[in-house]
Amino acid sequence: MTTPVALTIAGSDSSGGAGIQADLKTFAALGVYGASALTALTAQNTRGVSGVHPVPPEFVTAQIDAVFDDLAVKAVKIGMVAQTGIVQAIAASLTRWQPAHVVLDPVMVATSGDRLLPEDAIAALRGLLIPQATLITPNLPEAAALLNEAVAADDAAIEAQGRRLLALGCPAVLIKGGHGQGPESTDHLVTAQGSVALTAPRLPAKNTHGTGCSLSSAIAAGLAKGEDLLTAVRNAKTFISAAIAAADRFTVGHGHGPVHHFHRFY
Fold first, then answer.
1. Is 222 a catalytic residue?
2. pTM of this prediction?
3. Is the Cβ–Cβ distance between 243 and 260 less than 8 Å?
């Protein structure tokens, strides 16, 4: 039996709740072997980010090449890219290795509100990485930032922004509704064929650290296992909703604690 393998290219979270650590936990929870390429070290905890140390672009390339040269990578998840040089290194690596599935989570701001991507890197993200992605997964503020627009306020505006994001070159966009209002959290999956609304109850949870990282990783895990895009997105939303619902079983830190990736097991 072939083991499905997914690669995460992202930053490290020293508190273990987001970034590479959340990605690898998600892969493991969903039965996928996880490999990783670090783009940055962060000094952070559940209350915020106190430092970011980017990895030299050439060493990001070396990590990606080492993984692809040996492992049968079925899907790639990209998270924090830190700076323009790293975006360029990742884009060149994707062009060289041509993975079947790339899930790009355009991480710009942490849950704590700390900015994780400088302005000059956003243009590189738009021009170099989005066109190579199978799916991008911005939240409402990130979708607006990518388009230089105001945050969408209703379903029609969200779907319209999704269509404009498709024009950047990716075949599918999942705009996450976690930053919205109301009793339900609705994500919008937008493709050239139309839009699908995926709704779940909005959970009154304090512990949501790593939610976006984990959702995009869960989608990548599904694609690595051979699921079609809609199935992978539906299953990932079910997984992350359960991980949020179970997060209060933890007492980790004094801020926004992590979601419970292994809620199925303990």
1. no
2. 0.94
3. yes
